[in-house]
Write a structure and sequence with these properties.
This protein is α+β, with helices and mostly antiparallel strands. The chain has four domains: 24-136, Beta-Lactamase, CATH 3.30.450.20; 153-258, PAS domain (Beta-Lactamase, 2-Layer Sandwich), CATH 3.30.450.20; 265-400, PAS domain (Beta-Lactamase, 2-Layer Sandwich), CATH 3.30.450.20; 440-676, PPM-type phosphatase domain (Phosphatase 2c, domain 1, 4-Layer Sandwich).
């Protein structure tokens, strides 16, 4: 064996060791399916995940019906067919796969296809990692949200959300029943004007507009409601502003509790107290009328002497303190039933009433009993005078409001929890929004040289508040040289993690700007930089990317791809998908450092346009489940329209093709059109 061959084997062994270490650090395994032989290779990590030894592991991709969960099988086969039979680039999904031990586990599977000169798939190489813990956590989160909904639909309070037009957009069952809507679904979309008197509904609308304008809500405000038809009621209302995921005003949310019964009780208390005062003034009728009243009202009525001992009570009061008849209470004191802090506070009130002659009206009292249980009463107390005006003591009227107070406390807890949750979400999204804004281009440049001009146009429509797609166009060299680089990226997933990766990539783009004239080198350096950043942060993410350089001086466009869908080219009026030469493309950015990316040169002679895009455009599904695909995109791009109007027409046609008229994923489309002669 020669020295050169020994060195070659040594380098190969070192490269293999580096690859194994990188995979071990990312906790992912690698698989390689050779279509020409039908054989599949699994790394040790994949075998460990699936529970197989070095021998006997089946090809789960060739026979998915035997290994993929029935609920995931259709999507698995559809995406595999898109790569193998329909020129797709990236195979990516998260199915459940049965292990050798018979257990279903969740895996994240990613792969890219390797094709021969005719475009036929000869290999698929990808990664696989166990994400069961994350999936179970997501399931637990869904269960937790279900429990929250269960609580909201069973608490004796009304919880609801309204949009900026004061239309109900969400409510619990209690709210729907109280409004007389029957079900929550029948309540959605309606306003207060469909249930309340117009004057009351107008006032409620004005208050909600004020809350949305000022951001200042109201808490436990007592509100008199007048319903359509003349019925009236009373509620305690808490109303606050509702912010969306981007911090925008979405409307208002509120929590109310019906206290009509309490208001009726309060009215009864006042009327009874007034009646007792009139009876007290007529000495001849006092005893008879007093007993007649107090024994026949649903209140606790009592008279006390100047030492706060009971002189007379009604049947309701004797039942409250747990004795058989009202006469048994006579001569007793609050200390016989209640704790020291209560009877001292009650005695203090009664002394002040006798000293000042000023009554205590509708005081909410917490009754702490000797046996440790607690109740609540709404109490009014007055000075008790004899026929000659001499002070005899005090008399009082109380009503039990224990259930009302307990409900109000629960209402306060729910309101506080909702406010804290809303505040936490706003803080988290504020940072995410700042990062995301860096990914949205404000304007695109135009480059020209001599009689040749390159015009850039784009459409960017994120499907969620925090998206992972972004694009960039950057002039290169001096303005008169007519050179510019253009980039389209699709980061895995959505949300804050995707926004952070977008931020990392934009920083790397600026760092590697010196190599931006060479697409292959540029993507190689982006991949190395992102891979190292992800390794240090512990994130498992990746991003597909397409990068091109317009060089009007050289009369050419140079292109390279990192696992991204192939662009569409318009040459001499014909639009078709670009077929990259072997070795030009590489895997998605961030999967593994040290991988090479090539480039392909397209002459500007006859070239009218290049359009790069993310999969959110062509994967939208129609009524029959068929995808929009690039063939339909090509037909639209072949039309004789202006650049900006042309890319808008592609998105409009795809949206009309969609079942729901909307996109499920981010939409990012960047086009460059060429005018004049090179």
């Amino acid at each position: 064996m020669g020295g050169g061959e020994v060195k070659s084997q040594y380098r190969e062994r070192k490269n293999q060791e580096r690859l194994e270490l990188a995979l071990k650090a990312s906790n992912e395994g690698i698989w390689d399916w050779d279509f020409t032989t039908g054989e599949i290779y699994y790394s040790n990590r994949v075998l460990m995940f699936l529970g197989y030894g070095l021998i006997g592991a089946p090809n789960i991709f060739a026979e998915p019906e035997d290994h993929v969960h029935p609920d995931d099988l259709r999507e698995f086969e559809r995406k595999l067919d898109r790569v193998v039979s329909r020129n797709g680039r990236l195979f990516a999904l998260e199915p459940r796969i049965r292990t050798n031990g018979g257990e279903w586990k969740w895996f994240r599977v990613r792969a890219v296809a390797v094709r021969d000169q005719e475009g036929t798939v000869v290999r698929m190489v990808g990664s696989l990692i166990d994400i069961s813990k994350r999936k179970f956590a997501e399931r637990d989160l869904a269960d937790e949200r279900g429990l929250i909904d269960l609580v909201l639909d069973n608490v004796p309070v009304n919880v609801y959300f309204k949009d900026k037009e004061s239309r109900f957009v969400r409510a619990n069952v209690a709210t729907a029943e109280r409004m007389g809507a029957g079900t929550v679904a029948e309540l959605i979309g309606k306003t207060d004007h469909e249930f309340f008197d117009p004057e009351h509904a107008d006032a409620a609308r004005e208050k909600e507009l004020e809350i949305m304008a000022t951001g200042v809500g109201q808490e436990e405000k007592l509100e008199h409601e007048i319903w359509e038809g003349g019925k009236d009621s009373w509620v305690l209302v808490t109303n606050k502003i509702w912010h969306g995921m981007e911090g925008e005003v979405r409307g208002t949310f509120g929590v109310t509790h019906d206290v009509t019964e309490l208001m009726v009780t309060q009215g009864n208390l006042v009327r009874v107290a007034e009646q007792l005062q009139r009876v007290n003034q007529d000495i001849s009728e006092e005893r008879h009328l007093l007993r007649l009243v107090i024994d026949n009202i649903p209140m606790f009525v009592y008279f006390k002497d100047v030492n706060s001992r009971f002189v007379l009570v009604n049947k309701g009061m004797s039942d409250l303190v747990g004795v058989s008849t009202p006469d048994e209470v006579v001569g007793m004191h609050d200390r016989d039933f209640f704790t020291q802090d209560l009877f001292e506070a009650s005695g203090g009130d009664e002394r002040r009433i006798m000293e000042t002659g000023q009554p205590v009206i509708k005081k909410l009292e917490k009754l702490s009993w000797k046996d440790q249980h607690v109740t609540w009463c709404l109490t009014s107390k007055f000075p008790w005078r004899g026929p000659e005006g001499d002070l005899l003591g005090t008399f009082g009227v109380s009503g039990d409001v224990t259930k009302l107070v307990e409900t109000r406390n629960k209402l306060s807890e729910i309101t506080e929890a909702l406010a804290k949750q809303n505040e936490a979400m706003e803080d988290e999204l504020r940072l995410a929004r700042e990062i995301q804004q860096a990914a949205v281009p404000k304007s695109l440049p135009t480059v020209s040289r001599g009689g040749m001009k390159a015009d850039f146009h784009h459409i960017y429509e994120p499907a969620s508040d925090l998206a992972g797609d972004f694009l960039e166009v950057m002039p290169l060299g001096e303005p008169e040289e007519g050179k510019a680089g253009f980039l389209v990226c699709d980061v895995m997933g959505h949300g804050v993690r995707a926004a952070l990766i977008v931020s990392m990539l934009r920083g790397l783009i600026e760092k590697q700007r010196d190599s931006a004239m060479e697409p292959g080198k540029f993507l190689t350096e982006l991949n190395d930089g992102l891979s190292h950043l992800l390794e240090r942060t512990g994130l498992t993410m990746f991003s597909t990317a397409f990068y091109g350089v317009v060089d009007l001086e050289a009369g050419e466009v140079r292109l390279s791809s990192a696992g991204h869908p192939s662009p569409l080219l318009k040459i001499n009026g014909e639009v078709s998908v670009l077929k990259f030469d072997s070795g030009v493309t590489g895997p998605a950015l961030g999967m593994l450092s040290g991988l090479p990316y090539g480039e392909q040169i397209i002459s500007l002679d006859g070239l009218q346009g290049v359009w790069a895009f993310t999969d959110g455009v062509f994967e939208v599904q129609g009524a029959d489940g068929e995808e929009f695909e690039t063939d339909r995109m090509a037909k639209v791009l072949a039309q004789d329209l202006g650049g900006a109007e042309l890319v808008s027409q592609v998105v409009k046609t795809a949206r009309e093709f969609s079942v729901a008229g909307e996109f499920d994923d981010d939409v990012c489309l960047l086009g460059v059109e060429f005018f004049g002669e090179a």
